[in-house]
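dude i think i finally got it to work??
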Amino acid sequence: MSSHSLFDGWPSGCRPVAAPKRLAHAFARSWKPAPPQTPTLLATPRLLLLIVLCLVGLPARAQTKSDYYQNPTDTTLYSRALAQPRQLTVILPTTFNPARKTKYPLILVFDRQNQDIFRQLYESINYLTRFDAMPEAVIVGLTSSPSQRNRETSLPADMAGARGEELLRFVFDELLPWCAATYHTGACRTLIGHSRFGYFSTVMMCRQATQLSGVIALSPFYQQGRANWVDSVTTRFAPTQPLARRLCYRFVTGDSLSDTPGYARMHAALRRAKLHPNFDWGGAAFYQAKHHVVPGLGVLPALLDIFQPWSATADAFSSYPPVGTQLAYAAFQAKMQQVYGEEMSLGLARLNGLGNEYNAEKQYDKALFFWRQLLDEYPFFSATYVDIAELLLVQGQRKEAKRYLERGLQSLRANRFLPAPAQAQLAQTMQQKLATLR
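look at this
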């Protein structure tokens, strides 16, 4: 079996501890340890690239304006389990549609009150979405009160007055169902936690593994009171334990002096243990990174790994000449069901590109198939109604073409994405075509 890594060529002190090794069951990984070394600053172009990415927009606390995500919205959700309202920040895709055919992945970020780290995590998601390395997702940041943070990330056996059980109930019995009902999120759920929440996101993973697709533990520790969560992870993810679909666990540490301990113990234990084939784990160490630098360094490769099955399978539709067919699309969705627990969108750009390419190749049935899939996901992408109508006219289906133009005009009335001049021009085009069909 061959090994490779996103981090080949990096100074070993700054790279994850090894190359992922693909196993036959798909996407499982184990990473070899690398001894800490002092790297030469900017020793490789890839190190320079990472530093540039992590410094994007640091002078401002507000997020970068994005073509792919809306501005953040702050809201509150009253928790029965915690008996208090909790502050949330929600960031939706620009094309958000609560009635679309497939559901949105959910990314839950703890410690929203840390503005700089939250902003950098958002920028990483936005960057990967921009280049189709992950699907558009609903991002929810959960604020924690500094005075309650220790109690809410501790269990009763380890600390008097601990409220970790209440937080677990809030997240899984209240917050996640609320996100599903309000923002059309589904079974693909990823937790991102740093420091104490790196620890507690690991606790949540052990307790609610079947509810999650990914967990990113940044600067976690694994020992609190009498609990040793290294043992708990290896026990929970033994081959005999239930885990019907892939769960991707990534844990990341910084330097051994200022960052949290436990990384080496977890890494060694997972390498020794016989684990469930659906438990996909990997560790990364950035030995020159202090505690608060770790999130910006660790989240990009971790998100890449979590959504690699989506991006790799979806990329098969992007070659030219087009290779996608209805059967291939069904196979894509079957793969998403297997890995993430439900169907997922192929994305606006891919669906529209497939329609255009098949139309150019005069494979009209396939073009119609993918354009109709697009409208199921993005009904306000109004230009597609014109594309379908023109294709139907080529086939002599005047009545059906007229119906699509009428639907297109109706979609423009609620279109939030096109600027007013573009809407007016598209409406004029539709009306002119309709006039020829009366």
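Strands lie at 73-79, 84-91, 104-110, 138-142, 185-194, 214-218, 223-224, 227-228, 247-253, 279-285.
im so relieved honestly
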